[in-house]
Design goal:
Blueprint lengths: L1 H9 L27 E5 L2 E8 L2 E2 L1 H13 L3 H27 L1 H12 L2 H9 L5 H20 L2 H17 L3 H15 L1 H7 L2 H14 L1 H9 L3 H5 L8 H13 L22 H13 L8 H11 L5 H22 L8 H4 L5 H16 L4 H30 L8 H10 L6 E3 L5 H7 L6 E3 L11 H11 L5 E5 L9 H11 L2 E10 L5 E10 L2
Parallel strand pairs: 4-5, 4-6
Antiparallel strand pairs: 1-2, 2-3, 6-8, 7-8
Helix pairs in contact: 1-3, 3-4, 3-5, 3-6, 4-18, 6-7, 7-10, 7-11, 8-16, 14-19, 15-18, 16-18, 18-19
């Protein structure tokens, strides 16, 4: 039931907002203009291994047949990751049932399904995070099965999935190191008892096989992943702690993913029974923006002393793993300050709550089950109501500038324009258009080097070639939608200085009437 709810709750979100750039970045591995950090050649085949130094092409390989078969619509883009989220729920249930029993498994799975932040980060997957959750849960489940039954195949394939996780995104090292430290702290005797040379070899072989593309890239590029992804920065620890709390409270995406603050728009009315239902529920509940996971977590910690044996060890294990993983993202520059980082800690908070509540319910005698039912149901209902509020604001106000649905109108317009090169003069345009056009548009980066504070003589030459490119068309955001502020104006001024003026071709609005994109060309001044 939890898995079915998660699927049905995610489906109404799929087309309410546009496409964020990082949600589509995987497509550069196979759709033109192709790019990425690294690829190898085997015969006549071009094998992309890495999108960036810390993001692999696992998602791109999984999507290649999907896009060929179903095209590049919103269902083809988002349903696979939503299904990955459903699968991660099921794996979480199986894992919890093995380590803490069926009662804890039902509590944890239900709480995770009702977590709106988990649902949205998986469904839109701009992190990316969906495969991270799936692979880490799958690998952990197989390793736990090995510890219980000593089946060597589960050991190998468990570590293989963990290796795939670090190829998918190298930041998986946060969670992997957390799990490793927690294992050493909580289960040292078990590890020593199970450890043999053969088992060590199997675990290492499985992990290296899963992470092989990442290792090949690094061996050829002086270990760029590990040299370039960590820079220590402790200046914003309070802010990152607040982001962790906001993620746990469920409101971290309001005002960021959805454009509620725009003052001139006409909100959309509800269309269809799903939107009407979410609007009614949200209105009746007073438009809630916080659920109760954070407070449930604090209650679980207070009740943790009632746990014994395996239950207590599971709680301590999850706490240590969470602490180690979060500390790493908190002290890393440009990490830990966004929901798509903090959500990587999930579902460890739900594990702690589930195991603690289940253990407490057994120690409290007759009132245990009724108390558990009341507290658990209250938390789940609160989570469902916040999800309904997210659904309400998503169709009523639409996406924020980086999630604007104007990208669909831009795609349709550009398909009808007969042009040469298309220069994208801001972040957030090229990758989304590449995917939505299925690689049929001649897209090029147009904000480099014009985005630099000052242009050197060497910088001016490529910008001049871009401005004077015959038949070229330029796409920029309007002022209110810009990501790199003033880049568009700098390009227009540069063109004017060399004798060219902008000729506007179209202004593309979103479905709320907000002008989002400018399409223009440069022509010589008279």
């Amino acid at each position: 039931m939890a898995c079915l709810y998660f699927l049905l709750a995610g489906l109404p979100f799929l087309s309410n907002i546009g496409v964020e750039n990082d949600e589509t970045i995987f497509a550069m591995a196979f759709l033109k203009p192709t790019g990425g950090a690294y690829a190898i050649r085997i015969g006549h085949s071009h094998i992309p291994l890495m999108i960036m130094s810390y993001i692999g092409t696992l998602k791109a390989w999984l999507y290649r047949p999907i896009l060929r078969m179903f095209g590049t619509g919103m269902l083809a883009l988002r349903v696979p990751m939503l299904l990955a989220g459903v699968a991660s729920l099921w794996l979480f249930f199986l894992l919890l049932r093995r380590v803490a029993g069926e009662r804890a498994a039902i509590i944890g799975c239900t709480l995770l399904a009702a977590d709106a932040t988990y649902l949205l980060t998986v469904c839109f997957d701009w992190g990316p995070v969906a495969l991270q959750h799936l692979l880490l849960l799958g690998g952990t489940l197989l390793v736990v099965r090995f510890c219980q039954h000593q089946n060597h195949r589960t050991l190998f394939w468990g570590f293989f999935l963990l290796g795939l996780a670090i190829w998918d995104k190298a930041l998986a090292v946060w969670m992997l190191s957390g799990l490793g430290v927690a294992s050493a702290v909580v289960f040292p005797r078990l590890i020593l008892r199970l450890l043999t040379r053969r088992r060590m070899a199997l675990a290492v072989a499985g992990f290296l096989l899963g992470a092989l593309p990442l290792l090949v890239f690094n061996e050829k590029n002086h270990w760029a992943t590990f040299r370039g992804t960590f820079h220590k920065d402790t200046s914003d620890l309070p802010g990152k702690a607040r982001m962790l709390m906001n993620t746990a409270k469920g409101g971290g995406l309001f005002g960021w993913m959805f454009d509620e603050d725009w003052q001139t728009t006409v909100p959309h009315p509800a269309k269809g029974w799903a939107q009407e239902f979410s609007a009614d529920i949200s209105s009746l509940a007073g438009h809630p923006r916080r659920h109760l996971l954070f407070y449930g977590f604090l209650l679980a910690l207070a009740l943790a002393p009632l746990a014994r044996g395996d239950a207590l060890r599971a709680i301590v294990f999850a706490l240590v793993a969470m602490a180690v993983a979060w500390i790493q993202m908190a002290i890393t520059a440009n990490a830990g300050g966004s929901v798509h980082h903090t959500i990587l800690l999930w579902p460890l908070p739900q594990l702690i709550v589930a195991v603690s509540f289940a253990a407490a319910s057994r120690r409290l005698g007759r009132i245990g089950i009724p108390a558990l039912a009341v507290v658990g149901a209250t938390m789940v209902i609160a989570g469902v109501l916040v999800t309904a509020e997210y659904q309400y604001v998503s169709f009523r106000y639409g996406g924020s500038p980086v999630w604007t649905d104007a990208i669909f109108g831009l795609r349709d317009y550009m398909r009808g324009v007969h042009t040469g090169n298309i220069y994208c003069v801001d972040w957030g345009i090229l990758d989304s258009l590449r995917l939505l056009s299925h690689g049929t548009l001649p897209l090029l980066v147009g904000d480099d080097p014009i985005s630099k504070p000052e242009l050197t003589p060497a910088d001016r030459a490529p910008v001049e070639r871009m401005v004077t490119d015959p038949g070229a068309v330029f796409i920029a955001h309007t002022k209110d939608f810009e990501n790199f502020h003033e880049v568009n104006n700098k390009l227009v001024k540069f063109a004017s200085d060399i004798g060219y003026q902008r000729e506007m071709m179209a202004v593309i609005p979103d479905t709320y009437g907000r002008p989002a994109y400018e399409v223009y060309r440069f022509v010589a001044k008279n």
